[in-house]
Amino acid sequence: MSLGTTWRWFDFAVRNTLRNRRRSLVTVSVAALGTAAILVAGGFALSTYESLAQMSARLSGHLVLGQPAQFEQDEDTPLQHGLDDPAALGKALRADPDVRFVLPRITFSGLISNGDKSTVMLASGIDPDSEFAVKGPFLKVVAGDVLSSGSKDAEVMLGEALAKSLKAEPGTSLTMLASTTEGALNAIDVRVKGIFATGTPEIDRRAVMTDIATAQRLLVTERVSTLGVYLNRMTDTPGAQARLAAAFPTLTVQTWLDQAAMYKSVRALYNIIFGALGAIIGVIVVFVVANAMAASIVERTREIGTLRTLGTLPSQLLRSLSLEGLVLGGCGALIGAAVAAGISVFLYLVPVQMPPPPGRSTGYPLVVSIDAGLYAAVAVAMVVLAMLASAWIARRTVNRPLVAALAHT
């Protein structure tokens, strides 16, 4: 079929959709609302995935290096599966062109006491200067200041709920107790430098952060638990993992995704919820378009019979009626995409805060991403569904016997 013939059929379809403008307007409106709803929901899911991925990568590092047993077994004593000589290992890692930071970490548990009350702590030994520069907005300091290197005193930061339980504030002296790597009990006096909130109350009840040197002095070791490797970009992760795994065959190199149980759970849940929502909206749009086309075709049964009498083939009529579905679905998709983009821009200009999700104490900004791939996929799906609905409704009428079609009332 030539381009000119195609255009004439398309123009014929547009004219037919304008014959009953009120019905076409309702159909386009429903398709637009369906498109906008899918794009807003999908954009929200994509922004959530992106935010959780960034948060997970900042917390653990894009890559995490450790002894294989560190990821597979529980330790009998602290740092049983730790890394020796982390400084030399970090220097070797930074030789990779994609590596931006290498942060050593020690994780251990023990007790923390104010003299009158002792409670369980889950502590982390960190490199303060680089750690807080990398974590940035994912750690909220509610009192005092963050840790820094070179302090004369042993200092800690406490989770907000833990500080409240110990009646501690910046400047308060506490005592940390933990088992050393030899199994003996050791204690060290520390001063509270700051109080932080992660947004998860269960973590804030036990969380303690101190610098690497203090943690190693308490545990009587030179080891660290793992090394967090921060790359220039998230997309560098697979390539860097392959290179580092080849360069350090005795170590295990995990990605942030291996460490991100929450990200995987939320993504699986949202995929089910928003997938079902999109399917339901798609079915509604199909039924609305099919209903509109059915009413239009029934009204035009004698006209269709006349066109067939004049020599128009059923396949040509079917194509024309499918094009009417394309016009209705296409207009609805374009308007819906514009509405969804407008909502995304509005939320960017006028931030809206969401309430805290289950298990967290802080909310988060409502952000709806504008993803070109998602917009294209939804628009194409909406047009295809509208065309299929039109063709499905029209197939019986265009193949109806001419006498029955012309006698239709």
TrEMBL record:
Pfam families referenced in this protein's UniProt entry, alphabetically: FtsX
Keywords: Cell membrane, Membrane, Transmembrane, Transmembrane helix
Domain of life: Bacteria
Compartment list: Cell membrane
InterPro entries cross-referenced by the UniProt entry: ABC3_permease_C (IPR003838), Lipoprotein-release_system (IPR051447)
Gene Ontology BP, a term: lipoprotein localization to outer membrane
Membrane topology of this protein: Multi-pass membrane protein
One annotated Gene Ontology cellular component of this protein: plasma membrane protein complex
Domain ABC3 transporter permease C-terminal: 277-401
Keyword Transmembrane helix (UniProt): yes
Coiled coil spans: none
Family per record: Belongs to the ABC-4 integral membrane protein family. LolC/E subfamily.
Protein name: ABC3 transporter permease C-terminal domain-containing protein
